[in-house]
Design brief:
With 345 residues, the chain is mostly helical. The chain is built from 17 helices and no strands. It starts with a helix and ends in a 7-residue tail after the last helix. 48% of the residues are buried.
Length: 345
C-alpha cells in the first residue's frame, strides 16, 4: 500500500514540476520523504530530497536547493548508489552555475561525469556535458560551449533520445544566437521545434518557440517574435505551466514596450507580475517590477517609476541578485536625475 502511494506521489511530482506548480511539487516530495523514511527506503528518501531541491531551485532559492542536494549526496554515498551520487553531483554543479560560481560548477560536473562514464550512464553524461557547455558559454567561451553541446547531441542521437536531441539542438541554436549568427540559430531551433512536435513534447515546444521568438525579437522582426511568443503562451496555458505563462507575458510586454505601445506593455507586465507573485518566483517578480518601472520612466511618470524601482531593488537585495540590484539602482538614479534631485541620484 505504501509503495503504491509512493509511486502515485512521484508521478504527481513529475507533473507538478513540468507545469510549474512548484509549491505543490515540494509538498508532495516532502510526503514522499516521510513515507520513505517510515518504510526505511533510503534510496527513495534521496530521490525525494533531489525533487525538493529541484523545486527550490526553480523558484530561485538556490541555498536551500544546494543543502537538499548535499543531503541526498550523503545518502547516495552511504548506500553506495553511484548513479544517485552522479545525479546529485550534477545537480550541485547546476546550482553553483546558477550562483555564477563557475569553477565550482565545473568541478562538481567533472566529478559527476567521471562517475557517469564509469557506470555507463550515457543520459546523465549527456546532461552533464550540456551543463559544462553552458558554463563555458556563460564565461564567453562559445567555442568550448559549442563543442560540449555537439558532443551532447552526438550522445543523444546514438542512444535514440529524441527529447535530448531536441534540447541539444536548442542549446546549439542558443550559442549561434549569442554569437549574433541568427540564421544558424533559427536553423537549429527550428529543427528542435520539429522534434518537440513530433514526440508531443508540449512543454519544450513552448520553450523552443520562446527561443525562436527571442531570435526574431533581436533581429527586429517584432511581428514574427510576437507570433512565436503567442504560440508559447497558448501552449503554456493549455498545459498549466504558470511559470512559463508569466515569462511569455513578460516577453510579449517587452515587444510592445519596444514598439512604444506602453499601455499594452503594462497590461502584459502586470499579468506576468501577478502570476510570479502567486507562484512565489521572486526573481521573476523583481525583474518584472523593473520592467514596469522602465515603462513608467519612459512615459515620464516618475512617481510610479520610482515606486516600482524601489520594490524591485528591495527584492533584488533580499535574493542576493547583484546584477539586478545594479539595474534597479541605475533606474532610480536616472529618475532622480530627471527630477534634478542630484543628491538623491
Amino acid at each position: 500500500m505504501q509503495r503504491t502511494k509512493l509511486s502515485l506521489l512521484k508521478a504527481r511530482v513529475a507533473v507538478k514540476q513540468l507545469t510549474g506548480s512548484y509549491d505543490e511539487a515540494r509538498e508532495d516530495s516532502e510526503r514522499i520523504r516521510e513515507l520513505a523514511q517510515q518504510i526505511g527506503d533510503q534510496q527513495e528518501v534521496a530521490h525525494a530530497l533531489v525533487d525538493m531541491g529541484n523545486t527550490f531551485k526553480s523558484k530561485g532559492n538556490l541555498q536551500t536547493a544546494l543543502e537538499l542536494y548535499e543531503l541526498a549526496l550523503g545518502i547516495w554515498r552511504e548506500i553506495g548508489d553511484r548513479g544517485g551520487e552522479g545525479k546529485s553531483l550534477y545537480s550541485i554543479g547546476v546550482v553553483h552555475f546558477n550562483r555564477d560560481e563557475y569553477e565550482l560548477s565545473l568541478r562538481y560536473c567533472d566529478e559527476a561525469m567521471k562517475i557517469q562514464r564509469e557506470i555507463g550512464d550515457r543520459v546523465g553524461e549527456a546532461f552533464t556535458l550540456s551543463n559544462i557547455g553552458t558554463v563555458h558559454c556563460s564565461r564567453g567561451d562559445y567555442e568550448q560551449g559549442l563543442r560540449h553541446y555537439e558532443e551532447t547531441l552526438r550522445i543523444f542521437r546514438q542512444i535514440g533520445d529524441k527529447r535530448g536531441e531536441a534540447g541539444a539542438l536548442n542549446n546549439i541554436g542558443a550559442v549561434h544566437y549569442f554569437r549574433g549568427d541568427y540564421e544558424q540559430a533559427l536553423v537549429h531551433c527550428e529543427k528542435a521545434l520539429e522534434l518537440h512536435r513530433a514526440i508531443g513534447d508540449r512543454a519544450n515546444e513552448a520553450g523552443t518557440s520562446t527561443n525562436l521568438g527571442a531570435v526574431q525579437y533581436f533581429r527586429g522582426n517584432y511581428d514574427e517574435a510576437l507570433r512565436y511568443y503567442d504560440t508559447a503562451l497558448r501552449i503554456q496555458r493549455q498545459i498549466g505551466d504558470r511559470h512559463g505563462v508569466a515569462g511569455s507575458l513578460n516577453n510579449i510586454g517587452k515587444v510592445h514596450h519596444d514598439l512604444g505601445e506602453y499601455d499594452g506593455s503594462l497590461r502584459y507586465y502586470h499579468q506576468s507580475l501577478e502570476i510570479y507573485r502567486e507562484i512565489g518566483d521572486r526573481v521573476g517578480e523583481a525583474g518584472t517590477l523593473g520592467n514596469i518601472a522602465r515603462v513608467h520612466y519612459e512615459r515620464g511618470d516618475l512617481d510610479p517609476a520610482l515606486r516600482y524601482s524601489q520594490l524591485s531593488l528591495k527584492i533584488e537585495r533580499e535574493i542576493g541578485n547583484r546584477l539586478g540590484e545594479a539595474d534597479a539602482l541605475c533606474c532610480i538614479a536616472a529618475i532622480h536625475t530627471c527630477r534634478a534631485d542630484y543628491r538623491a541620484a
